[in-house]
Design goal:
CATH topology of the largest domain: Aminopeptidase
InterPro entries: M14A-like_propep (IPR036990), M14A_act_pep (IPR003146), Peptidase_M14 (IPR000834)
Number of helices: 13
Oligomer: single chain
Strand order of the largest sheet: 7-8-10-9-11-14-12-13
Largest sheet: 8 strands, mixed
Protein name: Zinc carboxypeptidase A 1
Number of strands: 14
Organism: Daphnia galeata
Strand content: 15-25%
Radius of gyration: 22 Å
Distance between the termini: 69 Å
GO molecular function: metallocarboxypeptidase activity; zinc ion binding
CATH class of the largest domain: Alpha Beta
Shape: globular
Cofactor: Zn(2+)
CATH architecture of the largest domain: 3-Layer(aba) Sandwich
Structural class: alpha/beta
Helix content: 25-40%
Order of helices and strands: EEHEHEEHEHHEEEHHEHHEEHEHHEH
CATH superfamily of the largest domain: Zn peptidases
């Protein structure tokens, strides 16, 4: 008779226990090496959907994540809610067998992440070749950060509505660029502020926000709805608030999330900028461990990139009517709070407007979109379990916009993308941008 052994409260066979412990050590060493290598190869890594049906299965997934055996692409938002996890080639057989034994119904969504990365690279190059003789900016392709900056500067030089400014420098010394689209002087009209690209691997957000910027700047006087929106509001857009991480995803690790700041662990650089804001800093849903993808940093606003957004909001204090942090992926529109399940005093109004925005997104191409305060979206039925408070989020830009700057219409949009995850092809850019813009326009047209 087999003697079961216990790991983190879960029972496994001796063979499984040995493999899990060895795999955890190998993952830790491999993770450290990957962070220091020139190029990270995800050959054989898979993305798998799972359906946790019990508290125990949710806890097991959390245990596997802590050991580095899986990486969440989308966390489960409750019992009987699908999650997406990344599993390395070396761990796939073990983990998938355990998941099946625990009735989590593992289903492969992406069979080989590296193949998807290479396909994306190939399609980017094909579009670059096709448009090599064109001077026009290709909005249906992905661009390195220097190209985004060059486009913003060019628009500012040739369009009287556009102002380009540098709001700070990244850890590695890159300018953090911001564009404003306005018809008059600053400090007169209310502002709609879009912050994009805080997580490095979410390329579709830079592409979406640079397209929205062009719609505003080029559509004024041509499109009646855009003209009315620019007449009513000033628009401020930061296409990427994490330029170092974004560049690193082009050069070395396509799935990198954080910035590139050094930490107290020499093999684990990077702070999750969306956990570095002074909104329940260091609380549930962030990590004190430098190797974690949600490492919050040593203190609130320890990171220059977070300070740049903070300072831009402060410079426009009293004028920012709405703040939207654009992320991928998930098909979710979220409001404060992320770190506590109680609702803000103004939640009814927050909900009214985000419902209009999310439904406008769905009306465009039929993309399903959830909407609620973030804690409700992430926790569903589970946050009354003490262990599951890690599914909350602390230190986010959106919550800081609300609690730090008193911006009632403070939102996070997680764009479409469940098929391709963080590695969409260029053909997904325009549909993502169009439906996201339709949602933001609907929001803007319904602010009180």
């Amino acid at each position: 008779m087999s003697i079961l052994q216990t790991i983190d409260g879960f029972q496994f066979s001796p063979v499984q226990t040995s493999v899990i412990n060895n795999a955890s050590s190998t993952v830790a060493l491999g993770l450290s090496a990957a962070k220091l290598s020139e190029t990270v190869d995800y050959s054989g890594h898979k993305v798998v959907s799972v359906l946790p049906k019990s508290e125990e299965s949710l806890q097991m997934l959390e245990s596997f994540e802590r050991k580095g055996l899986i990486t969440y692409w989308n966390k489960p938002s409750g019992l009987n809610r699908l999650a997406s996890i990344q599993i390395s080639a070396g761990n796939f057989e073990l983990i998938s067998n355990i998941l099946a034994e625990q009735a989590l119904s593992p289903t492969i969504l992406i069979d080989n992440i590296q193949e998807l990365i290479e396909k994306q690279k190939s399609e980017i190059r094909q579009r670059q070749i096709q448009n090599a003789n064109s001077k026009a900016f290709d909005f249906e392709n992905f661009h390195v950060y220097s190209e985004l900056v060059a486009f913003m500067e060019e628009m500012a030089a040739n369009n009287s509505l556009v102002t380009y400014s540098v709001i700070g420098q990244s850890y590695e010394g890159r300018d953090i660029g911001q564009v404003a689209v306005r018809t008059g002087s600053p400090g007169v009209k209310q502002i709609i502020f879009l912050e994009c690209g805080v997580h490095a691997r979410e390329w579709i957000t830079e592409s979406t926000c640079i397209w929205i910027f062009d719609q505003l700047a080029s559509g004024y006087g041509v499109d009646p709805e855009i003209t009315a929106l620019v007449d009513k509001y000033d628009w401020i857009i930061v296409p990427t608030s994490n330029p170092d991480g974004y560049e690193f995803t082009w050069a070395s690790d396509r799935l990198w999330r954080k910035n590139r700041a050094l930490t107290d662990n020499p093999v684990c650089p990077g702070v999750d900028l969306n956990r570095n804001y002074d909104a329940n800093f260091g609380g549930d849903g962030s990590s004190p461990l430098a190797c974690s993808e949600t490492y919050h940093g040593v203190s609130a606003f320890s990171e220059s990139e977070a300070r740049a957004i903070r300072d831009s909001l402060a410079e426009n204090r009293g004028f920012v009517k709405a703040f939207v942090s654009v992320h991928s992926y998930g098909g979710i529109w979220m409001s404060p709070y992320g770190y506590v399940t109680e609702l803000p005093l103004e939640y009814d109004e927050m909900y009214r407007v985000m419902a209009i925005g999310a439904e406008a997104i769905t009306a465009t191409y039929g993309t399903p979109f959830d909407y609620a305060n973030e804690a409700a979206i992430l926790c569903k039925t589970n946050c009354f379990f003490e262990w599951n408070y890690k599914d909350l989020t602390s230190g986010t830009t959106r919550d800081y916009a609300y609690v730090g700057e008193n911006i009632i219409y403070a939102y996070t949009i997680e764009t479409r993308g469940k098929i391709y995850g963080f590695v969409p092809p260029p053909s997904e850019i325009l549909v993502t941008a169009i439906e996201t813009w339709n949602g933001i326009k609907a929001m803007a047209n319904n602010l009180l």
